[in-house]
Amino acid sequence: MTAKVTITLAFDGASDPVPVRSMRLDRGLAHPVGRATLDLPRGVTAPDPGAAVSLGVVQGDTSLTLLGGTIAWRGVGLDATRISILEPAAALMQTMAAKSYANTTAGQMISDLCSIAEVQTGMILPGATIPHMVLRSDRTMLDHAMRLAHMSGLALTSDTSGALGALAINLPIPGAPPALNRAALVSEDAENSHIPPANRMVGAGALGSVGPGASTLPLADTSLISAGSADAPATTRVAAIRTLVDATQAQLAAKQRQAATISGLCLTTPLPEDLSPGDVVLLPGDNGLPIRMARLETLAVSFSAQNGLLGHYHFSDLEAA
Fold first, then answer.
1. Is the dihedral of CA 202, 205, 209, 213 positive or negative?
2. Coil, helix or strand for 254?
3. How many Cβ atoms are within 10 Å of 239's Cβ, its own excluded?
4. Are both 108 and 133 inside the same structural domain?
5. Is 104 within the bounds of a domain?
6. Which of 46, 102, 217, 236 has a CA between 20 and 30 Å from the CA of residue 263?
7. Global confidence as pTM
8. Does residue 81 form part of some domain?
9. pLDDT, tens digit, for every residue of 37-62?
């Protein structure tokens, strides 16, 4: 007999979880601020916006945290109380005073932004070398952090505890665990599976030159981005990238991201997996054999009285990159 599945919602300081009528949770690698919307039964009181909350699922003796964050919005209706929860990285979605950085790395700048916004951090790789860069006040801290990650070939990720990390896109992760240990449906998103990735390059050094010492030469063109067509190689130039090593890393990451997202894998399961966007896993095929390595791009978990609990996961195919 299958154990009953229960959604748990615990408010900061509360001794017991509260019941949940329905839920929709969305998290993605492209935007590291996950969101959940929940309907609570009539009579259940939810704290004011800003209160800490933890959302999870329990089946038998197994419990899993789906999302931790704070209440962003609360509304009371005739038959239900609706709340919206955002991951802690939402604190980065605000502007700050302009700040200048010199002789540092993109990773250190991302860590500093998290410190300003009081966002917990996980593993943040160094990223590109930054001789000098000014973060302007007309963009949010999240905009700056995502741009710094992009120019470094990194991706911003949030785990279920709310810690923000910056991980390499084009580096394989050894020993990736299987994604599934329960019944699920894996299908291939083959709509664009035969479209080749665009042939683009990132230039660094004087005129994009190579050879001895080229890794320390400044870029000839520091315009934001200049992208070419897929028919002919073009040069993508990103402001603040100053070395051939950093340009190569950004180029490899961009090419792999494009190739990997052309062909995707979709997973549907009646019980959520312990995964966060950015995780690399082996998706099993027949008889439990792994079929390919894949990176989780987006996940959506829903719960209702009519449809029960359902998890939808979309992966990029790393073996296609």
1. negative
2. helix
3. 14
4. yes
5. yes
6. 236
7. 0.75
8. yes
9. 999 988 888 888 999 999 998 877 77
